[in-house]
Amino acid sequence: MLRIALPNKGALSEPADTMLVEAGYRTRRDRRDLVLVDPGNEVEFYYLRPRDIATYVATGQLDLGITGRDLLLDGDAEGTEELLALGFGGSTFRYAAPQGGRISDVADLDGRRIATSYPGLVRRDLEQRGLAAEIVQLDGAVEISVQLGVADAVADVVSTGTTLRRAGLTIVGPVLLESEALLVGRVGREPSAAGTRFLHRLESVMHARQYVLVDYDCPVGVLDEAMEITPGFESPTVSTMHDTEWRAVRAMVPRDQVHPTMDRLYELGAKAILVTDIAACRL
Q1: Judgement on whether residues 8 and 144 belong to the same structural domain of the protein
Q2: Structural contact between residues 44 and 56, judged by C-beta atoms closer than 8 angstroms
Q3: Could you tell me the CA-to-CA distances from 21 to 1, 63, 90, 234, 280 in Å, in that order?
Q4: How many domains, in total, are found in the chain?
Q5: Does 28 map to a domain?
Q6: Other C-beta atoms within 10 Å of 154: how many?
Q7: pLDDT tens, 16-48?
Q8: Strands 153-158 and 113-116, sheet pairing
Q9: Distances from the Cα of 91 to the Cαs of 18, 115, 128, 264, in angstroms?
Q10: Distance from C-alpha of 182 to C-alpha of 85, rounded to nearest angstrom
Q11: CA 242 to chain centre
Q12: What is the model's pTM?
């Protein structure tokens, strides 16, 4: 059976489970379960600490895993590779320091104490910049470390920045890393048939999330212009109607462009414009 590691908790856990359900796989009902067997799909799922997932995949104990790019690169990523970016769990990794303090640029971190849960990422970044700083490794809630006098600055995952602002901190310098959930595999390992199927199913879910189906009735006289607005993936489907002056058109449209597309079609003269979600899609 294909053996896959999944996050047992944290920000990636629930979105990963949702994606698996959309891809046709079973997921655990009890959050305390650490192993789930899906015999119909020839898969065993192992729910592990997200930070440990890459290690199990790199050593070959498990075939695939879902984890964050930040967690992958913070540890020893040797032996693992990104197979597919999954489009959820997006965040950035940034430095932050007290507002109005002496640290207003990354260079000001030289000789300072930096609290973080990602010592590997911070150490590599400081080395690349030629800076020397003391890394204070914490397991979480690093933003309070400055107030408690443990550190002069922090390096942490940032989504909206609200937590940092509440702690009186402000972003310092550019983004160190843009992270999201990834499907990872072992370097050099050829995927099995079940592994390839798993990858394709996740891709189909991502495509379905990115596109919608648009159906509309179009006057024959503006059909060519309408098809330029909705070219579809290969080309739109055009069907004849009882009224020969009209055609029925169906095309895939990027989800983030659906309303501007409807506006343009309506202004062109199209009628009965319908939008339908796509449950799964192979391109």
Answers
A1: no
A2: no
A3: 19, 20, 20, 28, 11
A4: 3
A5: yes
A6: 28
A7: 999 999 999 998 888 888 999 999 999 999 999
A8: parallel
A9: 19, 18, 22, 34
A10: 5
A11: 46
A12: 0.84
